[in-house]
């Protein structure tokens, strides 16, 4: 029987709490007015305006990110153009050396193909030095090339590895297609550097 008595006491105390006065108003009246305000059109209007502003800001953020992406790509192109060393073109001698390399690689003799690859490597190394790429060896200079400075960098590495095998492995057999490919890779690098 104590349980219904406890509920009656709790009910009575809650009602007496709502009779508590704050200034001229009872707590129950303040609660009723707040509930009416929250359900009114003012709050609904505030929520609607906030939603519209949020959508507009989200669209602006998306557009700025798209523009920023384009700007980053543009800035990256400008930076690589600024950072990229420009070679000192010697004109005739470089073109004459390249023509000789081309004659050797078109020969029917393996020794001449080997000569063409080694000479193409030397020519590119000389141009890289003149262009301001730093390092003690061709390999060091290639390691110091920054991304975006020289596009066919991986192809140059492939050709340079063939050259290193020729220089260090006396029994290395160089196939004609391999020699032509290496010389072609060196030629692409020389073209990009603006000497061919």
Task: Walk me through the topology.
Elements: H1 2-18, E1 21-22, E2 25-26, H2 27-38, H3 41-83, H4 92-105, H5 110-131, H6 138-143, H7 153-168, H8 176-192
Kindly state the percentage of residues in helix: over 70%
Q: Summarize model confidence as the mean pLDDT.
A: 75
In CATH, the topology of the largest domain is named Four Helix Bundle (Hemerythrin (Met), subunit A)
User: Which sequence of strands runs across the widest sheet?
Assistant: 1-2
User: How many distinct helices?
Assistant: 8
Describe, in plain words, how this protein is organized in 3D.
The protein has 196 residues and is mainly alpha-helical. It folds into 2 domains: 37 residues, no CATH class; 101 residues, Four Helix Bundle (Hemerythrin (Met), subunit A) (Up-down Bundle). The protein contains 8 helices and 2 strands; from the N terminus they run H-E-E-H-H-H-H-H-H-H. A two-stranded antiparallel sheet has the order 1-2. Helix 4 runs antiparallel to helix 5 and helix 5 crosses helix 7. The radius of gyration is 40 Å and the shape is rod-shaped.
